[in-house]
DNA sequence: GGCCGCATACTCGGATACTGGGTGTCCGAGTGCGTTCGG
DNA sequence: CCGAACGCACTCGGACACCCAGTATCCGAGTATGCGGCC
């Protein structure tokens, strides 16, 4: 099980966007995070499709969060990048082979699928409980309250 | 995020093995589950390397669980197949770019990495709480107590 | 001086190559059983 | 009749192709800005 690398970039980008009222171009986010600009842009498109960020074209265009950072969960971002499909997909092994279970007895999911789904729910719940605002606050705390101010200052500068 | 297909086969195989005292060849497990024999064998090798099953060669060889099914968690099986590496790997974005955090301030993991690790822990805990014996019991309950008996009967038959 | 139109530079968005891990398969090495031969 | 040696069939184990999703990149479409010209 491997999570796309873009998830990390998207989460950092959302935290950064939470510090700016004005649109921030993808190229600028890429510069700040030290990532390939074109590839980061691809993931930002996914965030846009998911309705997490709003994009504006033109000379002073860029990306802005569509709603307050406290209303965007880490789960929202992860699902936007990685998709909503669960990690475990039951292929209905029980309905194959010499001991195949007839279809009419497969109303409820396989017990193994239920266990895996419960684990996925626990994972999702943990991510749903964390918001972008929480992440920004914690990053700030890790740096004794200077990190987010530095980001705001850098975003305001002409680069 | 996508979980290897072999995880499903491995879990079903372990449940099946929990119903047999005698070694069960990979080909027989593949026949019961309707899976490609060679590919299933590959995953059983992983279970063997992880110490979950013991393999015996020779004419009446096959695979046997190394310990009671109640002492094998779903997490053990998943990790044997999928590896122990966490889904989210922090690439230390904070240490790159114009606002790079100096190394001496990176003693603790990034707040984002901590959040993702917490989610992974929740996922792992949910799987660790389920044993192969639990799964066998639930599958039996789903079938009104006939499934495991059918498996035992089929394994005992000469096929 | 104010307003309108246009060229411009910048932005996003999707379409296009490349690569690594998962998928699937095969054959060789090794082992325990059954048979057979000798005592 | 009993024991040991042999052959065998069956098993696992690792090494070898194939394919899709993630990785990375580029160029075209569209838009808000700023300037210049006109009234």
TrEMBL record, chains A, B:
Pfam families: Rrf2 (PF02082). This is Rrf2 family transcriptional regulator. One of its GO terms (cellular component) is cytosol. GO terms for molecular function: DNA-binding transcription factor activity. PANTHER family: TRANSCRIPTIONAL REGULATOR-RELATED (PTHR33221:SF13), WINGED HELIX-TURN-HELIX TRANSCRIPTIONAL REGULATOR, RRF2 FAMILY (PTHR33221). Coiled coil: none annotated. It comes from Nonomuraea zeae. It comes from the Bacteria.
